[in-house]
Amino acid sequence: MIWVFLTLLLLSGGLTLFNPTQLIYWLADGTWMICCVIARIVPQKLAVYMAILALIASLTTVWQARALTHGPTYHKRFWLSLVILIGLINLLIVPSYMASRTLWGSILFWFGIVWLTFLLLMATYFSLTSYHLRHQATKSRLIIVLGAQVTVRGLSRTLKRRLDRVLAVYNTETVPPRIIVSGGQGIDEPQSEAHAMAAYLIQHGVLADHIQLEDHATSTQENFKFSRHLLPSTVPSRTAFATSNYHVTRSKLLAHNSGFKTIGVLAAPTSAISLFSATLRELVALTYYYRYYLAAIWGVAGALIALNLVYPISF
């Protein structure tokens, strides 16, 4: 069985080379496979597989998280928090090793699978983010800027960093790209994010004719959906979107769902003080996005564990 598992894992990894975004689905399928073999493997052997997966996912998460860090301050504000979180998740998986054909053992085992799935999602998130940050867009002809908070004091630091990333590209291209600034006005914002972004870009040398406003979006999905309505039926080649580095994975996914099949990425850095909380929010958002898929995995796992409790099967 272990060779079957390794073969499917390598096959899934190879397929992601053609479309890295699908890595989330492949890892979820791997978790699904683990659930499906519960009725055929004794708990002790399955616990070993879970421990191996948890170790691989933990090391992958820490290794790929390097792409988001810049400078020594991140070591205490980001790395320490990340390692503590991963450690806690692994500790929550540990009780699953006590699984036996008892009611409480089966419940613990199910929770172990739930937390293992979340750990795999973390590893996937950081892996994809690292991939996108290493393959950022070049020679963009159209840039969609995703909005962020605007206060009475002006643009937030997050939004300024995104716009500065766009300005860096705009000022180095021989043919300046067209820019769509996307963001509506929240109840706590003095003006729409799009108007505030346009004013900032114009103030820093971007021609007004090169800027197009989309001032109705209130979410990342709407950023892409409403921006897509401003474009012709065929998306211009070398289109990219600008956002914060922690936000690129989910943004890429939502862009694909809105019809941007080959869109590039322009990522702005995030401050050390907010990076950990920002990435944690992204993980929560991804969990919500895949809630039906995850619910199906956890439901099947629970059903198989319950079945194995009533009708134990082993080698």
From TrEMBL:
Keywords: Membrane, Transmembrane, Transmembrane helix. GO terms for cellular component: plasma membrane. Residues 142-283 form the DUF218 domain. The keyword DNA-binding does not apply. CDD domains: YdcF-like. InterPro entries: Cell_Envelope_Assoc (IPR051599), DUF218 (IPR003848), Rossmann-like_a/b/a_fold (IPR014729). The chain crosses the membrane at residues 47-66, 78-100, 107-128, 260-280, 292-311. GO terms for biological process: Gram-negative-bacterium-type cell wall biogenesis; peptidoglycan metabolic process. PANTHER family: ENVELOPE BIOGENESIS FACTOR ELYC (PTHR30336:SF4), INNER MEMBRANE PROTEIN, PROBABLE PERMEASE (PTHR30336). This is DUF218 domain-containing protein. It comes from Secundilactobacillus paracollinoides.
